[in-house]
Amino acid sequence: MQVQGSLNTSTLKHSTQTEQCLHFTPLTPMKESCPARAPQESSLSMRNTTTGTLKNGLNYCLTSQPDAIASTAALVVASGSNSNPKTWPGLAHAVEHNSFVKNMRFKQPYEYLDFIMSRGGTCNAATSNQNTTYYFQLRNNCLTKLNTIFETHLAEGLNRLSASLQEPHFERTYVEIEKAAIDHEFHELAHKPWFETTDTLNQILNKEHSETQFGCGNDETLSDKQGVPLQHALKGFFKQHYFASNMSIAIHSPYTLDDQKTLLEHYFSPLEAKPSNNPIPLPSFLTDIQTPLSCEVKPRLNTSNMKLFFCIPSLPTALKYLLPILNNDQDASFKQSLRNKQLISDYEAYIERSNNNEYILGFKFELSTYNLKNVQDVKKEFFQFIKNIQLDLKAPSTQHVLNNDTFSNDYAQKLFIPPTIMEITLNAAHSLTPREQQARPVRKPSPLFQIKMVLNKITEEKVIEIIENPRLESEALTSFSKTPFKTKQYEYTQASNTSYMLQLPSSDQYLLPTALMENNETNNKLCRLLNTPNLQTWHHLNIQNNSPAVLTSLLFSKKHLCEIQANTLYQIWNSSVKPISSKTAILGINLSLEQRNNNFEFKIKSAASHLPILFQEISELIQQSLTSIDLSLFQVNSIKQKQIQYYGERSIADHAIAAIKNNLLNLEYNPQKSISLITPENIKSQLQVWQNQTQINLLMQGCISATTAEDLSHRFINLTSNNTPPLNNVLNKNLKQVYLTNTSLYLPSSKTGYCLYIQQKNNEPKTAATFLLLSKLLSTSFFKEMRVNRQLGYSTDVNALQLIDTSGITFTVEGYKTRPEKIEKEVNSFLKNAFQTLTPNRIQLYKNAVITTLKEQPNTLPHTHKSDLNAIEKMSSEDSYYPDHLLAKVLHDLSFEEIKDIFYQNCIEQPQDIAVLIGIE
Question: What is the pTM of this model?
Fold first, then answer.
């Protein structure tokens, strides 16, 4: 924690007396003229610097820059809050404040500050854990009008700074004034979030460590102790730590280095010279019984929270069905029972997706009070509640709705069984009284220190223990009972049955002590446990064997392909790979080439769980495109001729193409090492697992009524079986019927509310063209009043939807308090009103606009949002999409009456497919 030293300028008494200066023998006048105005950019080439040590041990760094318009000096004392005596928290901060007041050379109070401000300069000081810094800046006066260097503003500033650090007065009156200023500063800081955060974080650290001591100080900690007045303590601290060899000074000015050194020796040589203090060995940051991997404290919370997380590899229908049950707020609900027992004030269950594309089922409890018994009671009630749910899910009535295949692998029984991740977030000042908050020792560790703390305390045995036995919850709870802190004690992710990843939440990477990587025996053991070829690269392994998301990345190093022109890969991409991107986009797969730092990265990415089935087909497409690469694109740079020997007899083009082909299915390619986690063999072994999993899930989220759920179960009765579509690129009949209302979770939306899909009745070009026209028309400002219902509190966005082999219109409705059935009724009313207001002139106007747009756009699914494509878990052929030029021609030939007829049949006569709740979280 860095405590800024407020200099209490509000209480300064400005001096009206003549400045008291010492007189010196005149030196040779300076030949330099008055420093000119600084140009916009400093002439750094003219800057000269020198370093050294005075005879008394003072280290210095002097910099001369002729065009500098100001002179600056900073002196650092290598002692700060860590040097405070245990009985005097904040003493170093108090010495910093009182050093500016009076001294033997300048006896007028606050003369140093008066001088700096009267010359238009600035000055301040800061007390940190390890150091205390004093600094000032003054504009330069013109040397041509002066007789000696000692008449410059810089010299006068150094004179006063040195006097403050040589012989300060600690008079009782001004000591009390500065103590009041420090107390005021403390009370201002005490309300800052970081202040409360560090206060709570401090409770897990070793109290014997000086970093945990109270650095700021206040009226209580700086009061006289057992007959020892504060001013005596200030004198003792000053004498112990303020001497030349414990200081360093830096000066930056336009004056020559010789003149600066003359000033330095004259003013600072009188500083006391004595040996530096021997550094006192510090105890460990943590006690032996405390080994947290990381800590996170969130300040200023109204309550303390406890969260339980369950990592699940996939999202079955059961969880979507369970959410309304888990969040039920009725009198007999689990939430109300905990409230009645005064264990919690609130509770919420939710589902989210983790960074590694697994799903997390989370339960958040807002605890009424925090103690070990409360935590244990809540957990006991929770797991009993879960057992009851597991029994309910086996009931025939539930199975009828969810379909029995959902639990073919006894998923419900396995769902809530540990390992779990537990996180407890406490109010930073939850257990402290106002008086305790004021006097609580506070410190703010630097992020670097936190990382060192984490790495130093994770022993080799602890890492192995966590990986082999992730059930360490009881150990975490034991530490909770000792101190009211907490957050994340251990966090890990179960990647598969045989592989675990240990994650430190304080970093985006996965960290391990360097010693572990250097130990071959431990390295090999961890590699076997982590299922990775080398521990040095284990933090790249952010992909799970059973994850529905697959990312294949091919990384080229510019150094490895240094003979190839910089734009060659882009030429390959544009001429050979990009043409097939439209085909793969139809399959829900994204191909991309990116330049990242000094590397090129070729990615194949898809959120579709059927990707392994299509992998062979994708590979063949890319392989075919690579065989047609124009080898003339590869040109050798004459400057790099010698490096061709590295490739032997094979040409650069052969090497590049071989790298693409051989590493197509690798997670990441590196010239030295190749991490082959996703290989054809792995895909083949996992293919059966993917095929047996239920890939079709119901869109049942939030508060869908029982009637709607029952209707959904009938719609999807033939889809939740284990039958997988054939490997060819064609959808089966059942999938074609309901693809719009079927995704792995839900179609992502930035809105909160409902989404209503109106699907066309047939698949003719006329219908597709009409839907495109209607979506443009209904989204115009003309229909704004119809789309916004202020009484019901919702607004509607209308978008065209052309997916797989069917066109449609999507109504995304904001206003989640409105029931799905009400939304359907209102949308139908909107469509009827819109139908009645259509006129030939308005239709013709928008026909022309849509036709123009279709002719300008390439045939790359312009009407489909990328997130929608990624969410659809189906396969299709390119023939399912009508080319834009065909739609433009068909729309041009459509008459007004034909458009009205298609609109009426598809949007008004035909019942809507489904109304679903999305984005409620």
Answer: 0.36
